[in-house]
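JOB MANIFEST
job_type = single_chain_structure
chain_count = 1
residues = 169
[input]
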Amino acid sequence: MNLYDATVPIFTKYLKNVEAWFDKTVAYAEQKKFDPEVLTTARLAPDQHALVAQVQGACDQAKWTCAKLAGKDGPSHPDTEKTIAELRQRIRTVSDYLATFKREDFNGAEERKVSHQWMGGKALRGGDYLDYYALPNFHFHLTTAYSILRHNGVPLGKTDFIGGLPFAT
């Protein structure tokens, strides 16, 4: 499998799911008569990042993973979002960036060396980077964002997290 198939469409799908969570968040807040923006600073534990940082983290992991695997430099986005509308824009910006990738950009990505500053000069093969770091980290941020919303009463279920499936025809 070309790593394009395990990254671009997957990241794009799940980021789109987050936008749907925000739709439910706003509707829930309207029903319960509270400002949905209070949830952007909600967190599960005092030492854990808030919702806004979890969404930023998922977006960053998606764009940087695709860039690194394609041998490119990803764009930098300042973490300035404070509102649901701004988080939606961040998701759209990253999704638009992901849409620029082509399958051929990922040729050789399985063996391409991927490193980050925090790796202390070490590198991972692209396939290992994706399997052992990038996908788990992306889903960690998604799961935490989902859990923050769910913990605060937003009526989300497993199908909201997973979203639509590409059934065989």
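[summary]
The longest strand covers residues 113-114.
The mean pLDDT is 97.
exit_status = 0
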